[in-house]
Amino acid sequence: MANKQSRKIAIVGGSGSVGSPTVEALLSHGIHTVTAISRSESTAIFPSGVTIKEGSYSDEEFLVEALKGQDVLILQLGFMALNSQIPLISAAAKAGVPWVIPCEYACDNRHDKLNEEIGLMVMKNKYRAQIDSLGVSSWIGIVNGPWFDWNFEKSFMGLDIKTRKAKLFDGGVKFNTSTLSKVGKSLAALLSLPDSKLSAFKNDFVYFSSFLVSQRDVFDSVLSATSTKESDWAIESESPDKAADAAKEAIQQGNRMGNVDLLFATLSRVGYGGDYEAKAIGNNFLGLEQEDFNKVVKDLVEMMEQRK
After folding, report:
1. d(CA 182, CA 41)
2. Which of 29, 47, 60 is nearest to 187 (CA)?
3. What is the pLDDT of residues 11-22, one digit of tens each?
4. Helix, strand, or coil here: 58?
5. What's the rounded Cα separation, in Å, for the pair 277 and 87?
6. Residue 122 CB: number of other CB atoms within 10 A?
7. Which end of the chain is more exposed for a tag (fewer CB within 10 A), N or C?
8. pLDDT reading at 266 higher than 70
9. Strand 72-75 relative to strand 50-55, pairing
């Protein structure tokens, strides 16, 4: 990618699932100054070349001082820590940080039908509203669909490699999904763009994607990776509509896993926003290579089978 621009980038959550590949990708460009802001009690380890500033997220003086002179604040906190963004966003405004990347990293927040179905989506709106209300920083929201490798390893996609069980939704609807590595590389490439190009995404969402696949596509790739046939698996078919209803009932009964089931059932329904291919930013624009879907699946399967 030509015409890169160096930036001073602070990151919170830089040792997590999406934080680690993001930090690695930022460093790989060789032009950015990367600062990890971490709690004093944290045991997180960061690569060499990362400046570490430790303190309390409730200490505004510490946060403002840590963010002074930074061009970007990346927030990559876990779901249960989303409210920790509030003091960080406030401090970024007081420090005059031009760009804030809030915790989105989810499905299409602009798709009304999807947001009506999945209540967790709209919970993140208030953080962007906070950035807007302070009137200092601009934000970019990251849409990446479900993290492919993370969900695959946890068997959240309905495929259990160990037990050879598969629960497949009818219809074969395709949805966009991204690997954690792709999210990190895409974000790093985006933040390496010159201001003239980066400004096109000001206060808007950017769409990253590794693959546009159906659950059936994933299963077919798994069959190839495991050298198995369908007859080797216990396969259960289910309507995504019925699965969504069952997931909602589970959520009402306090079963948090119902949220995962609702997500994949909804993405597997026609017209619910799982397919955002037309909005996805191209690899050529970011200077990235296309990932090999079957290789990603095969590598994941091999890793999981080694753990047996």
Report:
1. 30
2. 29
3. 999 999 999 999
4. coil
5. 35
6. 11
7. C
8. yes
9. unpaired
**Residue for token digits 């999406």?**
18
Phi, psi for 261 (deg, rounded to 5): -60, -40
Residue 163, amino acid: T
DSSP letter, residue 83: G
State the pLDDT at residue 307: 83
For the chain, the distance separating the N- and C-terminal CA atoms, rounded to the nearest angstrom, is 41
List the structure tokens of 240: 């995504």
Q: Is 14 left (phi over 0), alpha (psi -120 to 50) or beta?
A: alpha
Domains of the chain: 8-146+178-210+280-286 (3.40.50.720), 148-176+211-272+288-303 (3.90.25)
CB atoms inside a 10 Å sphere around CB 203: 12
Q: Is the pTM of this model over 0.90?
A: yes
Give the integer Cα–Cα distance in Å for 23 and 199.
22
Helices (H), ranges, the chain? 19-28, 60-67, 85-95, 112-117, 125-134, 148-153, 180-190, 195-198, 215-226, 240-252, 257-267, 283-286, 293-306
Average confidence (pLDDT) over 233-240: 96
Alpha-carbon torsion 151, 204, 63, 86, what sign?
negative
User: Which tens digit of pLDDT belongs to each residue from 65-110?
Assistant: 999 999 999 999 988 899 999 999 999 999 999 999 999 999 999 9
Evaluate whether 159 touches 219 at the Cβ level (below 8 Å).
Answer: yes
Task: Please choose, from the candidates 125, 184, 151, 172, the residue with its C-alpha nearest in 3D space to the C-alpha of residue 274.
Answer: 172
